[in-house]
Amino acid sequence: MTSPLSRRQFLSRSTAVGAGTVVAASGLASGESSATQTRDDSLESVVSDAAERALSNYDAGGLTVAVVKDGEVALTEGYGHAYQSESVPVKPDETLFRVGSVSKVATWTAAMQLVDRDKVEVDAPVNDSLDAVEIPQTYDEPITLEHLATHTPGFELRGWGDTVNKPQYVRPLAESVSTNVPGRVRPPGELCQYTNYAAALAGQLVADVSGQQFGSYVTKHVFEPLGMTNSTFRPAPSKLVPASGKAVKDTVSFYSDVAPASGLHTTGNDMARLLQAHLNDGVVDGERILSADAVEEMHKQWYTPHERFDGMAFGLFEESRGDTRLVGHSGAVMDFACEFSLIPEDGTGLFVVAHGTEASSANNEVVDVLLERFAPVETDEKQLTPSGMPERADELGGRYRSVSVTDKTAKDKAIFGYLKRQPVDVRVADDGRVITEQGDSVDEWVEIEPLLFEHVEKDEKILFRTEDGEITHLLQGLGAYEQIGYLQQLSVQGWLAAVATVTTLTGLLWWPAARAWRHVRGGTAPPPSATRARWTAAAGIGGLVLFVAALAASSIVVSGMDRPTLYNRPPAWFDAVFVVPTVGAIVTLVAAGFGARAWYDGEWSLVSRVHYSLVVAATGVIYWLLHYWNLLAV
User: Fold this and answer.
1) Is 340 helix (H, G, I), strand (E, B) or coil?
2) What is the rounded average pLDDT of the residues 316-328?
């Protein structure tokens, strides 16, 4: 099991991350900075060396860095080349980068601005402020802006509707948030589940309260006062690919359909000014966007699963490095990776964004150097040992799967099951250590409080959560895993599917073959009840075959249409595909009834009854798997 997720790891695993093809530049190119800087030659040298290593060691084409120290810009610099433009050097004052989920920093800043101006209350139901969409009243407690800002509204993780493959398919925000509304799977405030929909909904709230389009509001009330002249939420700004003769729409295949969550394009210089606003009590060059109290409110802790865990500020993630507290946000979309971090108590902030196939690794190379400089961590050797068996040791063991999968009600559950297929296996050693395994990673933990465990060597913790007295979840920082049963394990389901498929095929192949053999060689025909039962069972099996064929045909049809892909945004008629296996499941239940009657009445031969029962049971197992993965129309 990996160690408890850092803010960067948590975000990169909760959002769809793509890869592209950008060739690393052989040299470094620096752009002129238009911002007034307090020059720090040693900082410039350290960052330049780190950027050079990043572009040399990883498949990354360019990056930009902004550092604010004591509230003043200490460095803005560009390295390598612009996106898909090897002949154009990165310039911090004009080269655009996609910043993925760091877009949310601007969104939450705008939302807090409305709070600061008494236009909305953080603890009021968001339904009171939203015009474009009505959030279902699934639970007694309403969802508030505070819940959205801490990713605790209780929504399932939404997949369909977040991205498109062409800019002309990007919808107005109001349409995006009112379509494929994610299900509410838990009461608000109970558990953190990172989702783009929360930020998108907050962006629409900004639009509905202000009476302006979201992008227009942020431009007028955040970007323009701060002098962020190049920042935009437009889906395909031409400066993203500045090379002569290249158009964004012909070069890029990823566009955010939820701009407040992941649609910002910006420069190093612009983000330096946003850093300054957060570090200078909301003021940059005499222009105020937030009151000092509002900035303090944004940076304080609003949610944590445990007092000894890092938690959430207002839309920003906490991260502890020794005694230093950071708040900020990471971002990653196809070909881009980004980091926005603040050390409010020290007046320090940093912004790094890179592009390329290995943008995340390149970005982390520079971020780690900067964090080591401004928030160094002393590595004290420790070796915790247990004093005995942990409380409720017999209940801790088992397999835990991401709640992104277990708490999924939509038809794209299987997609998240594939993306997040590495579970966490937990067992308790004889000496009382809790051992967790995830992939190739094995970690050991010692209980320091009931159900709270600390790593034996690192300053990291995990927490087991209970519901109604039963242990149900494992929390790694803000990442949550739910304990699952034996039949929910993917390996077990894989074997079940394989055995069930083979068994089902024996009926589909053997019954017609036996009928043909009797026709050729003669023989006693089965009783009419057996014939009816086999035809019914075959129809149930046919439902599975037709479902697979319908999925394949839908994919082919949609790919040939001038519309978003099936993965991006399925058409309305796609729901009809799932009616096919639903009907097949009902028919299989009828077939099971025929089998039960045959056993009760003693009809057919014993071999026929056993084989028929096995085939129907196997078909039922496959339908149960489809039901588990939300692939039936019920």
Assistant:
1) strand
2) 96
Backbone angles phi, psi at 134, to 5 degrees: -110, 115
Question: Is the CA virtual torsion 506, 507, 512, 516 positive or negative?
Answer: positive
Which token pair is 576?
């009809």
For residue 101, give both structure tokens: 């989920």
Q: Which tokens hold the place of 497?
A: 């599917």
pLDDT tens-digit series, residues 511-549: 888 777 776 776 677 888 999 999 999 999 999 999 999
- The answer to whether 355 touches 336, Cβ cutoff 8 Å, is yes
Copy the structure tokens of residue 542. 């046919």
Average pLDDT on 165-194 reads 95
Per DSSP, the three-state class of 64 is strand
Top pLDDT among 14 and 425 is at 425
Locate tokens 């977040």: which residue?
162
Distance between CA 460 and CA 454 in Å, rounded? 6
Measuring CA to CA, how many Å separate 225 from each of 149, 229, 273, 277, 286? 23, 9, 10, 10, 9
Higher pLDDT, 516 or 411: 411
Mean pLDDT of the region 142-153: 98
Residue 453 has pLDDT above 60, yes or no: yes
SS3 533: helix
Distance CA 18, CA 583 (A): 37
Other C-beta atoms closer than 10 Å to the C-beta of 133 total 20
In 3D, which of 342, 228, 331 has the Cα closest to residue 280? 342
DSSP structure class, residue 254:
-
CA–CA gap between residue 70 and residue 512 (Å, rounded)? 81
From 513, 516, 565, 507, select the one nearest 541 (Cα to Cα). Answer: 507
